[in-house]
Design goal:
The protein is built from 13 helices and no strands. The chain is mainly α and about 325 residues long. It has a single domain, classed as Ribonucleotide Reductase, subunit A (Orthogonal Bundle), CATH 1.10.620.
Length: about 325
């Protein structure tokens, strides 16, 4: 227990010393709100006389989209809507916001606000688009969002900033992949506007992914042993989607249905999970780190073979079971 406490204290000190990196990242990876795209750029303009005709066209575009794709899109949107939990999670990390002031000028606190402000547009846009489409049972969607925010969010990072940076690097890339693949399926079904929406959101996720990977790269420079231990620890717990706690019943897991449908439709799969592991180990040059302590060397060995383990798991997966799409307006 003391060893873990000492490790967490050391990690917190390293993160606290990187406030300037977080502050610079706001300029390097985020977009000024005056220049950023906003949800209204992609939605019917309700100030215009032909607004209702624009809505009719939107609804017509979405008619051919498979129910499974709509269901997965809803799950991705619900994930984006739980932003109050994500900002709280980030500010609870050791070394990030010791004063507990959410309006602080601390670099990490400013980053958390600016990052989640950009993310907030994603849920807003997808929520409105789905509402106007008539394809989703929005009352059930709203209930699920309510429960997800009520239930909270657990990344399993245990307030360790190193583990949190690894989790977020992984998750931003996973979300990017899910939106890209959803966009492809939307285009295939004839909805070019939804395809463009998904690709635009994926572009945001790509910038955020780069930021978090850059934070972790700096940590690997300063503390390779601690960074490797955190990477190993996080991967052994497995990365779960932020919407894991969306359920409010034990008899019908909405999260399981969402996950199975995403796998079945190729939106986010076990192969993607394996490829992200491979990408991050390459990004941080895990195999090339030298001069490690014994525990870190063991972590290095584990991480360098992990992607292949998951690829073998993906290859052995049986055909996906039939799953009734959730949140669909039949």
């Amino acid at each position: 227990m003391n060893t873990q406490k000492n490790e967490l204290g050391k990690n917190a000190a390293v993160i606290a010393g990187l406030q300037h990196i977080a502050a610079q990242a706001i300029n390097d990876y985020l977009v000024d709100p005056q220049q950023c795209w906003q949800p209204t750029d992609f939605l019917p303009d309700m100030t215009q006389k032909d607004a209702l005709e624009q809505v009719v066209l939107l609804r017509k575009r979405t008619e051919a989209i498979p129910a499974e794709v709509i269901s997965s899109l809803v799950g991705n949107m619900i994930t984006e809507e739980a932003l109050p939990n994500y900002q709280s999670f980030f500010n609870l990390l050791k070394g990030v916001n010791e004063d507990g002031n959410m309006a602080s000028d601390n670099g990490w606190v400013r980053w958390s606000r600016s990052w989640t402000a950009e993310e907030n547009r994603h849920g807003d846009l997808l929520n409105k688009y789905l509402y106007l489409s008539g394809r989703a049972d929005m009352k059930q969607v709203e209930i699920t969002i309510h429960h997800l925010i009520t239930n909270g969010f657990d990344s399993k990072a245990e307030q360790d900033p190193y583990q949190a940076m690894i989790y977020t690097s992984f998750q931003e890339r996973a979300t990017k992949i899910a939106h890209v693949n959803t966009g492809k399926l939307a285009a295939k079904a004839g909805d070019d506007t939804l395809s463009r929406i998904c690709k635009t959101i994926a572009g945001d996720e790509a910038r955020h992914e780069k930021a978090y990977k850059s934070f972790m790269s700096k940590i690997f420079e300063l503390d390779p042993d601690g960074a490797l231990l955190a990477f190993e620890t996080m991967m052994k717990k497995q990365i779960t989607m932020p919407a894991l706690l969306m359920d409010h019943t034990t008899t019908d897991s909405l999260f399981t249905r969402f996950s199975l449908i995403s796998e079945k439709m190729g939106i986010y799969t076990t192969f993607d999970y394996a490829n992200i592991i491979n990408h991050l180990t390459d990004q941080w040059k895990i195999a090339n780190i030298t001069g490690l302590k014994d525990y870190a060397a063991k972590a290095q060995e584990y991480l360098c073979t992990l992607a292949d383990r998951y690829r073998r798991i993906a290859e052995r997966l049986k055909a996906q079971p039939t799953v009734v799409p959730a949140w669909i307006n039949y």
